Amino acid sequence: MQLRGEAIIIRPQVRADWDIMRAWRPFTDPLCFIYNLPSHQTTDREIQGTALSNDPTRRWYTIEDLNRQVIGRLSLREIDGQRSARLGITIGADWVGQGYGTDAIRTFLDYFFGEMGFFTLRLDVAAPNHRAIRCYEKCGFHHVGEEYREAGSDAQLAFLQDERYYHIRHFFVKRGNKNLVLFYEMRLDRQDWAQRRVKPE
After folding, report:
1. DSSP one-letter code for 18
2. Which residues form the domain of 135?
3. What is each CA distance from 181 to 35, 125, 126, 129, 175, in whole angstroms?
């Protein structure tokens, strides 16, 4: 399996991809700390074992640019037969904001709903992640729910006191001794995908 978009290639993930991804430059925006791959060696082995296992509820893919440089990863989890699955996607810090994510998702949707024959694709995204939300909306996903999730320690969220993050503070709440952040649930069904392919927005 190899999918080709306008500027990306998607293929099944192999173990060597994780060595490349670990060498990516980390995100410097403190809001993006959850996107940085773990650096602890044991954790890396555990993640690789999960990613490359034969778990029927998960599939893992690597995203390359047209020069075959590894620039991202894409995953399906919570696979339920051909009924539904949950999407995960990460683009490395050096390639964010260049349209690779949108290209990768649109390319993968054709494969997911077409050749793979699924009916529904879901995803969850942190409400402060405006760039990702815009990308998902452009690809046809719509909001179907929301919930609060744990967001890290007081020290990890101290950056919110900076005025540059004033516009996203309302997404974070404190309940007891836990910091929480709002997450959106989004969804795209095969019927909506097919209609968009016939008459794209």
Report:
1. H
2. 3-198
3. 15, 10, 7, 11, 11
Q: What is the pLDDT of residues 110-135, one digit of tens each?
A: 999 999 999 999 999 999 999 999 99
Which residues, listed in sequence order, are joined to residue 121 by a DSSP beta bridge? 85, 188
Question: What pTM value is reported for the model?
Answer: 0.88
Q: How many structural domains are present in the chain?
A: 1
> Which residue from 52, 41, 46 is spatially nearest to 17, judged by alpha carbons?
52
CA distances from 72 to 5, 18, 22, 101 (A): 14, 10, 11, 8
List, for residues 5-31, the tens digit of each pLDDT value. Answer: 999 999 999 989 999 999 999 888 888
Find, among 149, 139, 117, the residue nearest to 187 by Cα: 139
